[in-house]
Amino acid sequence: MYEGAIQDLIDELGRLPGIGPKSAQRIAFHILSADPADVTRLAQALQRVKEQVRFCSVCFNVAEQEQCRICRDPRRTDEIICVVEEPKDVIAIERTGEFRGRYHVLGGAINPLEGIGPDNLRIRELMERLQAGTVKELILATDPNTEGEATATYLALMVKPMGLTVTRLASGLPVGGDLEYADEITLGRAFEGRRAV
Amino acid sequence: MYEGAIQDLIDELGRLPGIGPKSAQRIAFHILSADPADVTRLAQALQRVKEQVRFCSVCFNVAEQEQCRICRDPRRTDEIICVVEEPKDVIAIERTGEFRGRYHVLGGAINPLEGIGPDNLRIRELMERLQAGTVKELILATDPNTEGEATATYLALMVKPMGLTVTRLASGLPVGGDLEYADEITLGRAFEGRRAV
Lengths: 197, 197
Known about the structure:
The first copy, chain A, is of the alpha/beta class. Chain A folds into two domains: 4-52, RecR Domain 1 (Helicase, Ruva Protein, domain 3, Orthogonal Bundle), CATH 1.10.8.420; 75-168, Dna Topoisomerase Vi A Subunit, Chain: A, domain 2. Helices cover 44% and strands 11% of the residues of chain A. Chain A contains eight helices and six strands. In chain A, the strands form two sheets. A four-stranded parallel sheet of chain A has the order 4-3-5-6. The interface between A and B is large, with 51 and 51 residues.
């Protein structure tokens, strides 16, 4: 155990996700010998995130104003909403440059084992957005795992009666991957979703 | 790319050692949903380390006063000094409970590839401590790697003429380890250092 302040910092860092005791110690000693201006910038960045970042009132993406940058963008179409689990999924999809509609961030996926049911997600808010009648297609882009699939199935059942097109992102072989190393479920999905060339 | 504050935090976190872009993003979102009091505590711990922690004027371990806890302890003997590379090595040795002498923290090891020579380490300060004549044994506990060995050899040559006992920590098989998985250098050292039972 170190003295006072350095041990306090190691303890605080050790509470962050993915940082074990060894990493916490390594970072603390890095901080100790780092430029004071850099450390101040980090400390301020931490505080500013809590003060300035909030969730978009429309799509629940992270935002610094009442609405996020994507919801404010007049060049995007209101006719397609892409439903994702987390704000980081928005970034991942934006990076493809393929999608010009709006998003809806659920804040997670249905996971009964962790006690997360439909009421813990922003599903009611999604239904309210769909009531307006502008939306023609709903893309379900939840993760391709058990929880994500369950959430997509649940949403599809809820939304189907509203008469809009509901789609799910394609599952299949990752581009640049090796067929031999694909797991059997992914390979099975790739067969199921095969397309004429 | 996220908006403003959250991206700033991801950038700042990504500069820390051992934190890649994915971890930085994960930690930033953890901070976003964390208790504000926890975040304030972390930010303050960062600042306090820079303000309060300094290096002990005697042994260069981390300290909150002019001298560190170990140098201030009157129950420890001044006759043995254990030379280590970093403050974290002091903690590792203290944890064994085997050593009741003082320490000297070099601040690294000789590493010509990174431009670290004897003048960049606290070797002059060590020599000054030894001049007093109180020290009877110097334990060289630098790391058992190339740089640590080079540093130990260099120190042994410097100190030998002063007529005190110079020792090096034993190399050998880690306790609880498996002989079959030991690398050949470690196993060779274990043979060299074999003891009568």
